[in-house]
Amino acid sequence: MALNLSQKQEVVAELAEVASKAHSLIAAEYAGTTVAQMTAMRKQARESGVYLRVVKNTLASRAVAGTEFEVVKDSLVGPLLYAFSTEEPGAAGRLIKEFSKSNDKLKAKIVSVEGKLFAAEHVDVLASLPTREQALSMLARVLAEPAAMFARAIKAVADKQDGGGEVAAEAPVEAEPA
Fold first, then answer.
1. Quick check: 1 pLDDT over 70?
2. HEC-encoded secondary structure of 44-108
3. By the 8 A CB rule, do 85 and 92 touch?
4. Residues whose CB is less than 8 angstroms from the CB of residue 171 and which lie 6 or more positions away in sequence, other chains included
5. Confidence of residue 168 (pLDDT cuts 50, 70, 90)
6. Which of 15, 45, 51, 141 could lock onto 63 through a cystine, CB 3.0 to 4.6 A?
7. Sign of torsion, CA 54 82 61 16?
8. Alpha-carbon distance 120 to 70, whole Å?
């Protein structure tokens, strides 16, 4: 269905707003993907904070102008599906990677993060980024480790002082010449 000028302007404005707030963009070739597969992908995208849209490349090119994703403008060729990660950088990468496993027609073509354009292979790197919860968990572990090490050191010193006589009594027995 062809869009009139006002509808095109609405699409460009909507995409520009999403692109200005997004963390990453993946453009993927989707030709040959079934309606059922696209529906499942859209459902998963909504659940994981990914804005998924199929639009004409000229409209997408206008939408990303002035955003950090402007670097992709020259690479937008062919029928593409645009996946913007709105909540965390790796969400779109995980979505595209997961669905491309079961659908060989879905292939990442462009990956862009923080104003840089990467080859399609970087979708694996993006997909391997930890989620927000995983990153917070790792940070908590790193912050708690010095306190845990200090507590173990204090306990070791206390154990050595409490059992100092026993350790000293056992030492000569083990040190006998053979």
1. no
2. HHHHHCEEEEECCHHHHHHHHCCCHHHHHHHHCCCCEEEEEECCCCCHHHHHHHHHHHHCCCCEE
3. yes
4. none
5. very low
6. 15
7. positive
8. 17
Amino acid type, 171: A
Tokens, residue 50: 């990914």
CA-nearest of 53, 100, 93, 60 to 77 is 60
pLDDT > 90: percent of the chain: 5
pLDDT in tens, 103-114: 888 888 888 888
Strand-pairing partners, residue 82, are 27, 53
CA distance 49 to 46: 6
Measure the CA–CA gap between 45 and 62, rounded to whole angstroms: 23
Euclidean distance between CA atoms 84 and 97, whole angstroms: 14
- Look over the chain and give the mean of its residue pLDDT values, rounded to a whole number: 81
Structure tokens at 127: 């997909």
